[in-house]
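During the reporting period the student researcher (J.K.) took over the structure-prediction task from the postdoctoral fellow and processed the backlog of single-chain submissions. One of the processed entries is reproduced below for the supervisory committee.
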Amino acid sequence: MAHKNKSNISPYKTQRPESATTPRDLRGKHKKPQQIYSVEEANDRLADIFRNHNFTSVSHTQRQQLAHFYRLLMESQEKENFTRLLTIKDIGIRHFIDCLIVPQLTELQFPLMDLGSGPGFPGIPLKIFYPDQKIILAEGVQRRVEFLKSIREKMQLQKLDIIGRNINPYFAYPVQGVITRAVEDVRNTLNNVLTSLQTGGRVYFMKGPKVDPELAVAEKEVGEFYTLEKDIAYTLPETSHQRRLLVYRKIKMAPLPDFDEEPWPEDGP
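J.K. obtained the following structure tokens:
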């Protein structure tokens, strides 16, 4: 649906880059990897990790791409604070298996937007598994956006859009699925994708086990537009890491916002 734009400014706004004057301690403690494996050795170690954790659905080609991603992420971690997981074992289990177990639990719908992608989780591993499907990485912090663009170029990933902005109800890019591993409250996420998610589309939440209080609030405030289809409690294989996968389906269109009223984003970390 067309809409007026009195200011002639696109509603798709990129968040301003992090201020160089922001104190380092306010950005989080920056930890660097003690060891970075080559792609070949990372590939071998990931093979052992996946086998030891009964996660055998990864092909050799896919594992090589994950090893390439691991290498690029760890190289960037030397300068940027993109992840708190720094060992190949932690990345293999708590990043790669954590992301790639989701398609084993539910069917994903595409185009799929990874909301709050950060350094590319779960979007990049999912793109490796679904090379022919369109995936959109939405990230509001500019330095992460630049990293995601470099990953796309260096790994030659196709049908991968990167949107450098925070997603809110004024965002109208049409998608059939949204997936997020961010810590934002369920209600807030459902509200923020209300315009872009098409009716019949689904939102996939990768959450921890203690998410029940968020469900009650979401039902009360946005239950008119969504229904909770799946609530799956599971444990990452051969670990003690408990997870909850929530799948919401959009059942009703919401009134479109006045796009001219979207506020400019404030500076963020």
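The committee noted the following: The first strand starts at residue 112 and ends at 115.
J.K. will present the remaining backlog at the next meeting.
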